[in-house]
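Look over this entry.
=====
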Amino acid sequence: MDFQSAYTPDHLSFLFQGFGLTLWLAFLAIIFSFLLGCVLGIVRYAKVPVVSPILTIFVETVRNLPLLLLILFARFGLPELGISFTPFWAAIVALTVFEAALISEIVRSGLNSVDKGLLEAGRSSGLTYVQTLKHIVLPIGLRRMVPPMVSQFISLLKDTSLVVIISIAELMHNANIVMGQDPDIVFPILILVAALYFAINYTLSVLARRLEVRV
């Protein structure tokens, strides 16, 4: 183990560049998957004829597929259908679709946890179904979704390491390049990579616990 050779300025700069891309990848995937997941969850909760059953089939299918398969499909399968993405955006598409399916279940479960009596009370007071959903069900349900949602985002951040399979220069990709230069620096590099992942994921975990206490 050679920590001095492992933690040279060049190595650290290269690794932190990869870590920055990992965070950017996770950030975009979190935003897109949250928006798509909320739409899917709300539509499924509302039981819209025809649309909701189709979305249920989509969500259940995606949830039961390996994320790695979706990443490979987005990068190499979609071009066969005439839809091409750069490796970065192929990763975003795969992560977004996969995480949105999981988030939609969190949203649907959160909305279903709201007492049906509140929904009936809203309708009895003259509110439309959409108004009742907007002003009563969603505010209560969203508060209950926050802790599991943050936990899902933590999983998403860790899942970004899988995009190394399509040669995106994120943290694990750059770490593999550095470790390939010298067997003696493998352990120190892995320690640093683990510390970076732990630092950001632990911070999110603490946030999730605090939000859970508040809710």
Q: What stands out?
A: The chain has one domain: 3-214. Residues 15 and 174 are 6 Å apart (CA to CA). The chain has a mean pLDDT of 87.
